[in-house]
């Protein structure tokens, strides 16, 4: 765990660019940049920044989002229900599909269906999840237009199809 904390801390600090300039923008004056560095402790030695980072993480303080200015935990909990919803739907679909296809493949042993389902399962396990997700978005959102490209379905959105 200690090694992971060092890797995470160093990855954040090795990103090119000054975090103060990223937050304030290129046209910020030097006084504002210095004030922001002081506020976030970026002007302190790296080892001191690391211990400050560990102390905050142990107390559940993950800082403030650069994009929204809100606490990171607030942003996390705001998006957590959608993540759980997506995971549960995917789990349900995988169980129903996996058990159904597995039972049928066992019943029709050594058939074309058996070999096809094994090949499909092997391809599915071998394919990176992010690639499969991108392909599903491309097919069902971009090509077919059945689903929105991003975001969640609302209560009034129906799957009509073309």
TrEMBL record:
GO terms for cellular component: plasma membrane. The keyword Transport applies. It is a multi-pass membrane protein. Pfam families: BPD_transp_1_N. GO terms for molecular function: dipeptide transmembrane transporter activity. PROSITE patterns: ABC_TM1. It is found in: Cell membrane. Signal peptide: none annotated. The chain crosses the membrane at residues 86-107, 119-140. The keyword Cytoplasm does not apply. Keywords: Cell membrane, Membrane, Transmembrane, Transmembrane helix, Transport. It comes from the Bacteria. This is ABC transporter permease. It comes from Helicobacter pylori.
């Amino acid at each position: 765990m200690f090694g992971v904390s060092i890797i995470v801390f160093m990855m954040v600090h090795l990103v090119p660019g000054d975090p103060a300039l990223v937050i304030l923008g290129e046209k910020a004056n030097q006084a504002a940049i210095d004030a922001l560095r002081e506020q976030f402790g970026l002007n302190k030695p790296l080892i001191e920044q690391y211990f400050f980072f560990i102390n905050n993480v142990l107390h559940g303080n993950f800082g403030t989002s650069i994009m929204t200015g809100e606490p990171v935990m607030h942003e996390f909990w705001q998006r957590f229900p959608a993540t759980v919803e997506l995971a549960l739907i995917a789990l349900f679909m995988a169980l129903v599909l996996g058990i159904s296809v597995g039972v049928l493949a066992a019943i029709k042993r050594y058939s074309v269906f058996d070999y096809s389902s094994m090949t499909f399962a092997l391809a599915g396990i071998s394919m990176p999840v992010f690639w499969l997700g991108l392909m599903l978005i491309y097919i069902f959102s971009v090509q077919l237009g059945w689903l929105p490209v991003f975001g969640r379905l609302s209560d009034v959105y129906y799957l009509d199809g073309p």
